[in-house]
Amino acid sequence: xxxxxxxxxxxxxxxxxxxxxxxxxxxxxxxxxxxxxxxxxxxxxxxxxxxxxxxxxxxxxxxxxxxxxxxxxxxxxxxxxx
Length: 82
Hints:
The protein is mainly beta and 82 residues long. Helix content is 5%, strand content 44%.
C-alpha cells in the first residue's frame, strides 16, 4: 500500500519543504520534497499515527489514520511557532 500526502503552513497554505514525516512505532520516515509532498511505499494495511516535525513549527500528529477507509492521501497543516 502507498500513502501520499502534502504538508502545508496552516495560515498561508504554502508547501513546506524538508518536513520529517514518520509513522509512529516504526522506523518508517520520509522528508517532504520542494512541493511539500511525501510518499510512503509498501505500507501494510492498518491504522497509523503519522507525525510531522519541522524547525519553527509545532509538531503535528494525525492519529489512527487508516488508508483503507480514509483514502491513501493525507494533508497535514502545521502551525508556525514564530
